[in-house]
Amino acid sequence: MTNLTISNEEDVARVLFYPSFFNEDDNPLISDGVLSPTAFKLQVLKSGEAEKSISVLRTLVDSFSHDMAKLSPRQASDYKYGYTLLNVGEVRAVRIPTTKKVDISVDYSNSKRLPSHSEIMLKLDDKTVTAFDEPMEVIRFRKKLSRIASKRIIKF
Question: In terms of pTM, does the model score above 0.70?
Fold first, then answer.
């Protein structure tokens, strides 16, 4: 049985797809040594539905490696480059300069297909941000996640 609570000490992994999550110059790191913020951009799905969370995998769940193997890129030209580890407490502690109320959560999603699947969600003034939203706070949030993620990139 998977623990439904994700502690601040736990790490989650974001699978990185190339070239979609990287810069056009074929370098996974932008000039200041930070992963591209596109690695954390919410997408509009083929169904037209907007993503409302960033998919991550819990590394402490037994199925972590198996679940990672199940993930496939959305773009036909992409391949799995590797993954980055993000500390949950560090993600929850991100501060974004704004006058809005900010709530960042990292929660277990209880997926039967991917038992280690979890989600990073951003709420602004109690409204969940989706792929249809691009206020400055979302851009700042992605940049901060990129800085955290750049510390621990594991290439396959």
Answer: yes
